[in-house]
From TrEMBL:
Organism from which the protein derives: Alkalimonas delamerensis
Source organism, top-level taxon: Bacteria
Protein name, as recorded: M28 family metallopeptidase
CDD domains found in the cross-reference section: PA_M28_1_1
Residue spans crossing the bilayer: none
Length: 561
């Protein structure tokens, strides 16, 4: 019997040797050591927290670009390079320059800054001032889908809109968050020239007014268009202020309804209707501007199918973090951003390597987009969404990696946005192949689907998912949800989001599960790239009707020709 087995084995071996040219190439496998190496560099002290516009971030971007180049990917940035330079404007409010004066029948009343109100810098002008009547507009929302029009019956032409913060409780969180981001646009389209937001007692219970004052000296940032003008800004809104609820009573002193009644309606979960406040106000401020640039890194793996290679599956991660803290009393001042987002970039780079090891490229092309200025308001991604280096109608889907928490052996995966498009089943299958379950959003009230880089492409009509490690652990001795919560409470956006500090508290970083995360990411992108059907918004999704399906098959065919 042993002789027979040996002879049979030898025959199989000879057969294999005689047909080496027909050997099936095994699927690429993610390498945990490669992920560790990328993270060690990107989260190192030498990069000083990778703040947007800093030398440390420039080094990080160069590292990412050279890694993608070494893999043999094609540059997809500007002018045949791997870089898309994003023009940015950093704006600061000149100290003590903000003024808010109410003009009433009894005379002028100036509110104290910053005790009664505060204002941000103006990204458009260094000197700005507007005087106009005030009109209360409730939450300042318009939605045909939800039957909301807070401006109905109101005249806002040349006036200042006074609105409530937050969102109505009866709206779904993601849909409400999307509407909330459109408030300034709604006001401008109705003819408003300024916006005042009232800090309510309800908001005070969640986020005290005093906490916001701590960030008054923080600069704001916007990307600039080809004319050097800030993008995403409603230029006709020449004034803005955020008013403490006690000081805001003066805005309603001559109105038909007192502010206290509005607060009572909020307590009852009602939607306060708008009305004229019968007074006017002057809002003025001075700002300083500094224009800088910071790079997105863009690379492409060309597809193999002649009719589909012009379409792209987009994989994104952000390379920036928040730099250094200003507290000189601490020796640990560098916000290394190990999980946020060295981990996400490392996974993207390893995913790119896996794609280059395929025997044949996928049918569609894969676009690797590593963006800057996520921490400044999704600016690098938003700039790309408005200035894509490939036709926007050819970007068929986006898979985003932002802050995978690699501190425990996760048993499940969260894919924010999976319930809105055909990407959900694709993610579930890809995760299942690695023995990982797909779990529903564990914190829907946070509306996380609208809070990372992918959302800028969603607003252009592109289906997307944002992947995150789940709240279940494969180790029964570890409470994944508790570890995740502990990380956010103690280390998120702090110098202790470093490999050394996290290792001391939680044990070794789980690079092995970073490899599993990478494998899932690769599986998702590969399936999307080879599927004959483009991803689509589900008919029942809010985003199907609000965003629509702008990239029709006809548009794709026209682009291809």
């Amino acid at each position: 019997m042993k002789l027979f087995v040996f002879a049979a084995s030898a025959a199989v071996l000879l057969l294999g040797c005689s047909s080496l040219n027909n050997t099936i190439t095994p699927e690429p496998q993610a390498n945990a050591a490669a992920i560790e190496g990328h993270m060690l560099f990107l989260a190192s002290d030498e990069l000083e927290g990778r703040d947007t516009g800093s030398r440390g971030h420039e080094i990080a971007a160069l590292y990412i670009a050279t890694q993608l180049q070494a893999l043999g990917l094609e540059p997809a940035g500007d002018n045949g390079t791997f870089f898309q330079r994003v023009p940015l404007r950093s704006s600061r409010l000149v100290p003590n320059s903000a003024r808010m004066v109410l003009h009433t029948a009894e005379g002028d009343q100036e509110l104290a800054y910053p005790k009664a109100f505060f204002s941000g810098a103006d990204p458009v002008a260094t000197e700005s001032s507007v005087t106009a009547p005030l009109v209360f507009v409730g939450y300042g929302l318009i939605s045909e889908e939800f039957g909301i029009n807070d401006y109905q019956g109101l005249d806002l032409q040349g006036k200042i809109a006074v609105m409530l913060p937050g969102l109505p409780d009866h709206l779904p969180s993601e849909e409400a968050a999307h509407l909330g981001r459109e408030r300034n646009r709604f006001a401008a389209e109705q003819g408003a020239v300024g916006v005042i937001t009232i800090h309510t007692p309800q908001r005070e219970a969640v986020r005290p007014y005093a906490n916001s004052i701590l960030f008054l000296n923080t600069p704001s940032m916007r990307w600039l268009d080809s004319d050097g003008e800030p993008g995403g800004v409603q230029r006709q809104l020449r004034g803005g202020a955020y008013v403490h609820h006690e000081a805001a009573e003066a805005l309603f002193a001559e109105a038909e309804t007192p502010l206290s009644s509005i607060f009572e309606q909020l307590d009852a979960n009602a939607m306060p209707a708008g009305f004229a406040l019968n007074i006017s106000a002057t809002l003025s401020r001075q700002s300083t501007h500094e224009d800088i640039t910071s790079p997105n890194v863009v690379a492409v793996l060309p597809g193999s199918d002649p009719s589909l290679r012009h379409e792209y599956v987009v994989l994104t991660a952000h390379s920036d973090h928040i730099g250094m803290i200003q507290d000189v009393r601490s020796d640990n001042r560098i916000n290394n951003g190990a999980m946020d987002n060295a981990a996400g970039v490392a996974i993207l780079l390893e995913t790119a390597r896996m794609f280059t090891e395929l025997a044949e490229p996928p049918k569609r092309s894969i676009l690797f987009l590593v963006v800057t200025a996520e921490e400044k308001g999704l600016l690098g991604a938003d700039y790309y969404a408005h200035n894509p280096t490939r036709p926007i109608e050819n970007l068929i889907a986006n898979v985003n990696m932002d802050m995978p928490v690699l501190l425990y052996p996760f048993a499940d995966l969260i894919a924010f946005g999976a319930n809105h498009s055909s990407l959900g089943p694709v993610v579930e299958r890809a995760a299942g192949r690695e023995g990982i379950r797909l779990s529903p959003d564990p914190m829907p009230e946070q509306a996380i689907f609208t809070r990372s880089d992918h959302y800028t492409l969603v607003r252009q009509g592109i289906p997307a998912v944002f992947l995150m490690t789940g709240f279940e652990s494969q180790d029964p001795e570890q409470d994944a949800a508790a570890i995740w919560g502990s990380f956010f409470a103690k280390h998120y956006h702090k110098p202790t989001d470093s490999i050394a500090d996290l290792t001391r508290e939680y044990g070794p970083i789980r690079y092995d599960f970073g490899a599993i995360f990478t494998q899932i990411n690769f599986n998702i992108a590969l399936d999307l790239a080879n599927d004959p059907q483009r991803p689509f918004w589900l008919q029942e999704s809010y985003f199907h009707d609000v965003i629509g399906q702008p990239h029709t098959q006809q548009a794709v065919l026209e682009a291809a020709n």
